[in-house]
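The instructor's notes for this session suggest beginning with a concrete chain rather than abstract definitions. Hand out the sequence below and ask the class to guess, before any prediction is shown, which regions might be ordered.
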Amino acid sequence: MGTHLITGAGSGIGAATAGLLAERGDELWLLARDTVRAAQLREQYPGSRTLVADLAAPDGLAAALQGQERPGRLDSLLHVAGVMEPGAVSDLAAGPWQETFAVNVLAPAELTRLLLPALRAAGGHVVFLNSGAGLHAPPGLVAYAASKFALKALAEALRAEEHRHGVRVTTVYPGEVDTPMQARLHDRLGLPYDPRTCIRPESVAAAVATALDLPRDGTLSDLMIRPGC
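After discussion, reveal the predicted structure:
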């Protein structure tokens, strides 16, 4: 059994990952933006425990978690939650940029900082769910892609800094995954959406589990997943 804290467990890749870990008997701590969402997650994953904090307000995470019970040892911290605001450089004002970076970069950095003592105690693992857009920036998704490039840098720096503490770091770069976010993106862009051409969330969850379960003599530092044939 392992102890895992997951963001974004309500749907998509986060839900698939939480479901996989719960099925094998691992202990789940799930981050929720408010108490209503926390109750929904506990119902969705019986036996799980929740923390309440808003990733859209990363400067308030420390205060939000103050006084809440959290694990003393943490085998993994899985950063799955994210937001996407389509738009070109010529279209996006400062607001969408700030909102995207708050959730996709600043919140993972701050949450990791706050939980590092528990991760170090367990020789734990930090997993960042990135995107193909974190390697090659497509037009029309500039803020999202820029945040994912920044998340890549965060992961690489963390991996180098925490190696001496026995903390492993993995970044996962999926292509198009059949998630509500993907469906909304296609709708916003006026593009046809066919789930059959996408990766299933369960396949990404299996890749995450593979990284977590790798023996301690190695680290899967970067995993790129593309739709199959």
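Then share the key points. The chain has a mean pLDDT of 95. The longest strand covers residues 168-174.
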